[in-house]
Amino acid sequence: MNFASDNTARIAAPILAALERANCGPAPAYGNDPLTAALEQRFSALFEREVAVFLVATGTAANALALAHLSPPWGAVFCHERAHIATDECGAPEFFGDGLKLVGLPGQDGKLAPAALSAALASGRGPPHAVRPALLSLTQATECGTVYTLAEIAALTDIARRARMAVHMDGARFANAVAALGCSPADITWRAGVDVLAFGATKGGALGAEAIVFFDPERARDMDMRRMRAGQLLSKHRFAAAQFDAFLADDLWLDLARHANGAARRLAAGLTAAGLAPLWPVEANEVFVRVPSGLDARLKAAGALYYAWPEALDADSPARPDSSVIRLVSSFTTTDEEVDNFIQLIRMPG
Amino acid sequence: MNFASDNTARIAAPILAALERANCGPAPAYGNDPLTAALEQRFSALFEREVAVFLVATGTAANALALAHLSPPWGAVFCHERAHIATDECGAPEFFGDGLKLVGLPGQDGKLAPAALSAALASGRGPPHAVRPALLSLTQATECGTVYTLAEIAALTDIARRARMAVHMDGARFANAVAALGCSPADITWRAGVDVLAFGATKGGALGAEAIVFFDPERARDMDMRRMRAGQLLSKHRFAAAQFDAFLADDLWLDLARHANGAARRLAAGLTAAGLAPLWPVEANEVFVRVPSGLDARLKAAGALYYAWPEALDADSPARPDSSVIRLVSSFTTTDEEVDNFIQLIRMPG
Amino acid sequence: MNFASDNTARIAAPILAALERANCGPAPAYGNDPLTAALEQRFSALFEREVAVFLVATGTAANALALAHLSPPWGAVFCHERAHIATDECGAPEFFGDGLKLVGLPGQDGKLAPAALSAALASGRGPPHAVRPALLSLTQATECGTVYTLAEIAALTDIARRARMAVHMDGARFANAVAALGCSPADITWRAGVDVLAFGATKGGALGAEAIVFFDPERARDMDMRRMRAGQLLSKHRFAAAQFDAFLADDLWLDLARHANGAARRLAAGLTAAGLAPLWPVEANEVFVRVPSGLDARLKAAGALYYAWPEALDADSPARPDSSVIRLVSSFTTTDEEVDNFIQLIRMPG
Amino acid sequence: MNFASDNTARIAAPILAALERANCGPAPAYGNDPLTAALEQRFSALFEREVAVFLVATGTAANALALAHLSPPWGAVFCHERAHIATDECGAPEFFGDGLKLVGLPGQDGKLAPAALSAALASGRGPPHAVRPALLSLTQATECGTVYTLAEIAALTDIARRARMAVHMDGARFANAVAALGCSPADITWRAGVDVLAFGATKGGALGAEAIVFFDPERARDMDMRRMRAGQLLSKHRFAAAQFDAFLADDLWLDLARHANGAARRLAAGLTAAGLAPLWPVEANEVFVRVPSGLDARLKAAGALYYAWPEALDADSPARPDSSVIRLVSSFTTTDEEVDNFIQLIRMPG
To answer: How far apart are CA A244 and CA A238, in angstroms?
Structure first.
């Protein structure tokens, strides 16, 4: 019963197999190999337009490099106040961006509220005293396990566009979002106004591979230099390319995500039936639920693994002394049995 | 009727005279001159302990260098959400601090609320995902024209100390605060838990001189290197020292601040009598008041100079379509006549 | 006949096998897994003392993070003028180090000359005008395929110690150096005055795994924060640990390096016999040789892969119009047949 | 007999008078005042084209901000190995430039040699491994007291232009150079291929005022943001503008520089007559001469002030145990009497 995170999962079998296949004779280093070239074409096909792709080792690097590339150091990046880039990356966006400023904004269900964005843009002193609005960053799926609809994204990117800001999407769980929406990757990104996507494969089943996808290759100019000096140009690059290629081939990424999403829905249904309705709609592979302290202790004692969710500043769900909010994450490896065992534990008399 | 800012004022006569006196034969550059040595002694006497002092050209540099020196790049600096360092310095703290993170917190009357600080410290993921709480930054006098009492400062620095954070004070209007409180500079700084003070003379009457004061000289180690590479070591340093020396001599700084504070009180009284009570207590040299749009237009037409106050995100005083909040700043040059003319304008039938 | 670089090689079989073994059930992310714990113990055993180890994705990151951790932003890092950190990392040391300064110094055979280091330390204005000498960086094996002896390292680190500088070793090819010297890893590092080692496994046979090894764990304090914000904390960390563990187990790293070194010696012998003596002693897995333009063209036409060596600023070997210096790198995959075919090509009448 | 530096001098009388004149009623802060507007026009007139001007507090800031604005963080800035930006600014260019790289090149008489620049451009690995050549920085007058001729500048900027690099001029002693050449400021800057000039007034006679002059205003875009976040936007900006305005008015800057240059020539003549010929041509206001240790001690004992010149790495003049190279700097305040007294001291029997 491991619901700690989707990055506790192993490598998906087809991805490991791809690594093994790639492990033949010599290949040019630093991305000059045929596998990388093929992957770039696959990305362009997937997104139905020519894109510029840069693989890196971690999601934090993918986000931070993308933000740094589209914001000047004196830029403001607007994001949800619970966004991973704001709370979990130890200041990487500020570091890579030479001191750019993240501005966290509120919004229900982990979704940035258009009114909050508009209000933030309307306030503030002008240049050169205030930093300049440069980027809107959306997390898809969100940190609360919800998924922005196409209309919700378009409403936000429209505000950004009018303020001459670019749009970044943190897609650490992009696969879960696309699987949930059932839309095309193109529709939910550039057609909806997104300029750059940090597309994660690691949480979805890779060993470690993240892609920065620029939908306008012109905006990617010099990104090779930025990636290199950030220590993110992998020398045996073919193995990163092989992972991502296998992830995208034959819709593996969507199959794995559908599995994880399904496990989360099964969890949510079981919890609701047990009288513990999730805090936010369960649309991807994360479930948040408030559990009484006694139950929390009992679950842990039985070996269930998950994290408490920081809640002190959470307007949707203020902290209470006798209970806590927990986060349950499913992955492509989560089995029905694991879920059912967990629900059974919950339903057991305390 | 110029209430735009205290930095629109000229140089106070005794400070200009000091510049003229300092303009004699050659003197060693870069702070190795006798005037600078004397100033350092004066600072130590003023604060009743040995301090380490670094003069710089602007308040933004003073704040940003102080923060950078006491926070690692992965540190969080907690400040009021309206703090100058957060809203008006174009990301200087993040730049000088190699990407440190400012965390804006709410609080009435421009004063950071202890509960908000405690809540912020209690939330957040642990290291290495979340940045580490490193600094508390207090603005004295605040951006709202109020002044922290000794007890209020001690309550906040106590929380900081228990969380192993250092404490910075933005004293661009430190003189106004000390004049208002009538306390000793030592009491309101290091005796109340402050580690470093950005002590401004420019708004108070200098041409341009700001001091970074470390109350524990040991914590200032290498600050000379940091200042130099930031382009803030003035070559003809004696002229900055001369300004500050004259500012501090014979309590000039307090006399000038008392004058400015008095003008603000006169403004506040006149406004209140005219039915326009200030939004926040007028304790230093700034007055904030909501004025109907018609009056706003009339005042401007009559030549009154002041700025509108960004209010869109202001919980204390939400934006309204038919009025706006204006900021009136007095200085050592503000005359009773200016104030009275302004009040008279306000009382005129519209 | 691929002598382009050792990073064009595949993954060594035992390392791939270790990845496959590690690919079982869930494991804690971010290095909190048992494999990582075991690896840390293995490193301490290997170096005969408690060390602090941080795995990262690339050698550039390993070097840059290590340098940034031991130098203030106003520090000078002295290195050979041909050092990888100075010429091939696109400014990563300066980026990670918030603007620290690399100072390239001359020295024969790719080895920094003690006299050049002493001279550099003796020159320069004092603080705060000049940056402060903070680090000595040695590359072992060097960029010229030579290996510092213990005595050579000790002579340099002794100068560094007297100048209160720390010592970094770029060990992208540390395995080749240790294999060549036949000494213990402890002797050639901390016992010889090295404070931090960037220990590479990628060129030696891994998919991608580099270790930053601090010989005094106290100096590694907060390195977890620095690594995280640099986007170098791998979420599925167990797979990096598994690679390095297999690399170190049963002296695999030395066996692979010995193979590569042997291939280089075979190359050198063949070249010398053909009248093309290498430019510098062949002590590790790189061979540098000047070839006439005609031969160069013929080799390439026959499918031999290698890079030209930038030589314009090279005092040891000034550029000539009718020839060029080429670099031949062997790896654990280089076969005798490959080498012999290459030598045969060279000996063929032009 | 103070020849320590031209920044030990006082404020020139017409500049102090301008400060006094500017010290009247209120004026808009942050450069929105009439004096600043007038100064901008004066600069455009002086340079015979529309320029964009940004005043800052120090020469280090002027240089570092200019370099940072015209080089990406992954850029290389080529300069003379003795350039102030490389040796005396404590890493400010790297700090402001987010880690850009300075590449010091040799050249006689403090002048960068075209062949050295060409060689440096021809070497190096390509992108993304090597940093990209971005800027050429020339110091005029040089650190050795010499002055580039128009032809020398054009030869270097021509190489830069062909390599798509921009050109920066460190003009801390620009006045001395223009006075020496007797040319127009336009001829020696943009007409000769210079893109940005750091034009110093402080050494020439101001209290503290330095100008960054962009000859193509388009390239200055966002410089206001960069200056602000660097803590270099002076709030009482009118006083910086007043200084520079007086400096430029009625050719004061050239008159003061001619005086300083004349004093240096008088020094050089006296030294030469005494058998101590200067090391490099004396073309501006600095004289470098090797003096026996005994004389050095005697001069100091007699109260002469000057600095030793770091020479350990100096190919033109290698260090010798029984003598040292000293630097003598004259300023607008240097009197014939001071010079003659100094020469007399030298000629006295030891």
So the answer is: 10
**Cβ neighbourhood burial of A143 (10 Å; 0-12, 13-18, 19+):** buried
Please enumerate in sequence order all residues whose Cβ is within 8 A of that of B1, keeping only pairs 6 or more positions apart, or say none. B302, B303, B304, B305, B338, B341, B342, B345
Exposure string over D198-208, b if 16+ CB within 10 A, otherwise e: bbbbbbbbbbb
Please give the ipTM for the structure prediction.
0.96
Location of structure tokens 């300092």: B22
**Cis peptide bond N-terminal to D128, omega within 30:** yes
Average pLDDT of chain D to the nearest whole number:
95
Contacts of A249 (CB under 8 A, 6+ apart): A14, A42
Put simply, whether B6 touches D (Cβ < 8 Å) is no
| B17 shares contact with chain D (CB less than 8 Å) | no
| A337 contacts chain C (CB < 8 A) | no
CA C59/CA C48 separation, integer angstroms: 24
Burial zone of A349 (CB within 10 Å; 0-12 exposed, 13-18 middle, 19+ buried): exposed
A318: distance to nearest CA of chain B, Å? 11
Beta-carbon separation of D99 and C94 below 8 A: yes
Chain centroid, CA A311 distance in Å: 20
As a whole number of angstroms, the distance between CA C234 and CA C57 comes to: 8
Note the pLDDT tens digit of each residue in A14-45: 999 999 999 999 999 999 999 999 999 999 99
All residues at 6 or more sequence positions from C326 whose CB lies less than 8 Å from its CB, including other chains: C288, C289, C290, C291, C296, C306, C307, C308, C309
Q: How far apart are CA C165 and CA D161, in angstroms?
A: 40
Which residues, in sequence order, are bridge partners of residue D132? Answer: D75
For chain B, what is the radius of gyration of the CA atoms? 20
CA nearest to C91 within chain A: A229
Contact D129 A228 (CB under 8 A): yes
Element (H, E) at B197: strand B196-200
First CA to last CA distance, chain A: 19
Q: Cα separation of B199 and B171, whole Å?
A: 5
Q: Of B72, B74, B225, which has the smallest distance from its Cβ to C74's Cβ?
A: B225
- Which DSSP letter does residue A141 get? S
CB proximity D327 to C under 8 Å? no
Contact (CB, 8 A) for C135 and C163:
no
Note the maximum CA span of chain B.
62
> What's the rounded Cα separation, in Å, for the pair D259 and D253?
10
DSSP 8-state symbol, C144: T
B127 in reach of chain C (CB within 8 A): yes
Q: Does A130 touch chain D (CB under 8 A)?
A: no
pLDDT of residue C316: 52
Question: Which residue in A95, A101, A123 is closest to B73 by CB distance?
Answer: A95
- Residue D311: the pLDDT is 63
Q: CB B231 to CB D11 under 8 A?
A: no
Contact (CB<8Å) B132/C225: yes
Q: How confident is the model at residue B126 (pLDDT cuts 50, 70, 90)?
A: confident
Looking at beta carbons, which residues of chain A come within 8 Å of B95?
A: 73, 98-99
Q: How far is residue A41's CA from residue A32's CA, in Å, rounded to a whole number?
A: 14
- Cβ atoms of C195 and C214 closer than 8 Å: yes
Say how far apart CA B122 and CA B165 lie, in whole Å: 14
What residues in D contact C90, CB-CB < 8 Å?
74, 127-131
Distance between A345 CA and the closest CA of chain B, angstroms:
27
Chain A partners within 8 Å of C224 (Cβ)? none
Note the pTM of the prediction, 2 decimals: 0.97
Neighbours of chain D (3+ CB pairs under 8 A): A, B, C
Q: Is C14 exposed, middle or buried (0-12, 13-18, 19+ CB in 10 A)?
A: middle
* Closest CA in chain C for residue D64: C99
